[in-house]
Amino acid sequence: MLFATPRIISALILREIGTSYGRSPGGYLWALAEPVLGIALLTVIFSIGFRTPPIGVNFPLFYATGLLPFLMFVDLSNKVAQAINYSKQLLAYPRVTFIDALLGRFILNFLTQFLVAFITLAGVILCFDTRAALNFSQIASGLGLIAALSFGLGTFNCFMMSMFQIWQRIYAIFTRPLLLLSGVIFVYSTVPEPYRGWLWYNPLVHIVGRVRAGFYPNYDAPFVSVSYVYAISAFFGIFGLLLLRRYHRDILER
């Protein structure tokens, strides 16, 4: 039985709420505090050396529109990657499938990260003179890209990390520089060639560009390729699902 059922997914979501966020009163508060502190730190550091951010007039908004999509991707992809290890005991039941585990973790953490981003950005816009002009279609498109890439790469990593413990360390090493290479603290168009061309292949650059275009009406991001991000997401997602379908019983017996 490979198709997820709403009742099982709902039960897995409630379990995750209790174990991941309900053990202490600060569970959800920390999820909100992490990006807020990150944005504040970047604002303080770069406002010392520069009078204005690369786009717009407000440092907190510029870094919020870069850091929040990045953190959302990191959290979602990591949570999906650990879905089978997290729910290994429940997967022993025939009615619970690995797809249930993947979707349960993904849905809860996507909604959590969306709420965190909404509260943070609303706070920035209300507290500062950001001069933002929201384009909801662009923002929604950016969220769709985050969701697709997080689930696709997370599904592939779910297989790799469940089968090969060393993969978690290898992946962590290779992705450590992503904060500096994803357009969080700079604008893609300001990067000189040939480095700009190399950075284009980082799907997070496209995601950050699309999200920022939803807040800055004068920000031109022609480099963003929605089809490229979805193609990368589909490749890793389908490949990961096929591998999990073939080897998920072997993983549970490990």
From TrEMBL:
Residue ranges of the ABC transmembrane type-2 domain? 26-247
The record's InterPro entries line, in alphabetical order, gives:
ABC2_TM (IPR013525), ABC2_TM_bact-type (IPR047817), ABC_2_transport (IPR000412)
Query: Which is a Pfam family this sequence falls into?
Result: ABC2_membrane
Q: Which domain of life is it from?
A: Bacteria
Its record classes its membrane topology as: Multi-pass membrane protein
Q: Does the keyword Transport apply?
A: yes
| Record-given protein name | Transport permease protein
Name the residues that span the membrane: 28-49, 61-81, 102-126, 138-159, 171-191, 223-244
For the keyword GTP-binding, the answer is: no
Cite the source lineage.
Answer: Bacteria, Pseudomonadati, Pseudomonadota, Alphaproteobacteria, Rhodobacterales
Give the UniProt subcellular location, in the record's own words: Cell inner membrane; Cell membrane
Provide this UniProt record's keywords sorted from A to Z. Answer: Capsule biogenesis/degradation, Cell membrane, Membrane, Polysaccharide transport, Sugar transport, Transmembrane, Transmembrane helix, Transport
- Indicate the family of this protein: Belongs to the ABC-2 integral membrane protein family.
